[in-house]
């Protein structure tokens, strides 16, 4: 059975706002910098990917992920 | 109550847009549920994954709203992960129901669930992003505290390959190239030829990794290079 058939139709209004009183959301990335300069990251957020890309623009893994941030809105 | 110690109330310990996963999935709106049925000593999120009471109670409708906003802001997928989301299957199903119908949903799993669990998940997720962590049951029992790991995971991977898109992820562990990566790679080449394989060499010694001498460091560069050579020699379909 397809997902569309099994999932109840609770389509949400695009761009719907949450209440003004909500608390600020926390985002977190864990970073481990090795002695040789290698940077390992977990839960990499778009913002942190951009920061790491600026630190080392030659890192292909980060570059590919930082470029995905261009359309992000935060 | 089993090893996961999960109760009736599912909790969430992280909700955010992330870009650390496979390129074809990111940016992803990642929702991480607390609790897991494995006890991987090297778990990056051990504190929350081993504790199903970590985080905040799951509120599907609110997360549905946030998913809509994230997708509108550029996220390409919505990912449910853990811990291990299977241990909160009823809540996970509620969460799916609250997601936008057109959202591309990713089920990030350790592939260690039961036959009953996977049948309930049939048709709900567009992509299964499944770990195949250990190449033998001895390493699985020593490092993750589970028996009969390999058979269960292989059965789930074969099933998932028939029921959704499948990406198999292997976290390369230092000192485990021959005992874990090689058997995993050889099995994938033989039984799931062409399946997308995500080889992750960025192991880091988190949580209780120091209980195991070989896991007290990152993967040596040479070992990482050899793991890639093996993957290429076997013709695996590696994805970034």
Order of strands across the widest beta sheet of chain A? 1-2
What is the C-alpha radius of gyration of chain B, as a whole number of Å?
17 Å
Helices and strands of chain B: which structural class? alpha/beta
The whole-number mean of residue pLDDT values of chain B reads 96
| Rg value of chain A | 18 Å
What profile does the largest beta sheet of chain B have?
9 strands, mixed
**Quaternary state of the chains:** heterodimer
**Mean pLDDT across all residues of chain A, rounded?**
71
Report the largest inter-chain contact.
A-B, 42 and 40 residues
End-to-end gap of chain A:
37 Å
Envelope shape of chain A: flat
Could you state the order of secondary-structure elements of chain B as H and E?
Answer: EEHEHEHEHEHHEHEHE
Shape of chain B: globular
Overview of the molecule:
Chain A has 74 residues and is of the alpha+beta class. Helix content of chain A is 28%, strand content 11%. Chain A contains 3 helices and 2 strands, in the order H-E-E-H-H. In chain A, strands 1-2 form a two-stranded antiparallel sheet. Chain A starts with a helix and ends in an 8-residue tail after the last helix. The relative contact order of chain A is 0.12. With 240 residues, chain B is α/β, with parallel strands linked by helices. Helices cover 35% and strands 19% of the residues of chain B. In chain B, helix 2 crosses helix 3 (89-98) and helix 7 (177-191) packs parallel to helix 8 (221-233). The mean pLDDT of chain B is 96. Classes of the chains: A alpha+beta (74), B alpha/beta (240). The interface between A and B is large, with 42 and 40 residues.
